[in-house]
Amino acid sequence: MASARTLVLSIPILFACCSIAVAAAQEPAQPKLSAKALTRDQVAVYQAFLAGYQAGSKHPLNVANVTDPFQPDKDDFQGCMKTFPRNSRATEVHQFTDQFPPDIHHLVDPAKYKVASVGDFMQKNDDLDNAVTSAVAAGMMTLSEVLFDRPHHLAAISIDFQCGRLCGHGGTVLFELRNGHWKRSKRFCGRWQS
Asked: pTM here?
């Protein structure tokens, strides 16, 4: 009788342990923060992208203060990243500090920053045009790590701009090294918009 009672009491404990293990296995592992500083070329690629992206904007851009890993898929390698080694991956991430002009870029913690949606502004009695403008201004740009081709003439980043539900865009953007400066290429792949 005692062993049956012990078994009955053990089942909830076993169930709880299994539930915790399953939940832990489903949570994505946090990428490792690189101990190395960003290289001059990596910073130059980010600056080239942001300068072009922000050209003519009236609002500062909220930029995630940490990069995302960049693991291109087969469509990237069959598209704009054909000349990149197939094993190109960046699994570690970097923290941004003072690489961008603070008057046109705000670094935000993506774990704490809440991206507002168009609906949030519509509830404040904004008309649709103003609500969309406000949602975009309150959006957040996340940049991936930079990958380079073997000769170091091309660079690629993945961008992800979120401005609420059904509001955002992104893709893989290429840069070419021309006369010692990184310039945005006309080639891109994996472009999406919502």
From this structure: 0.81
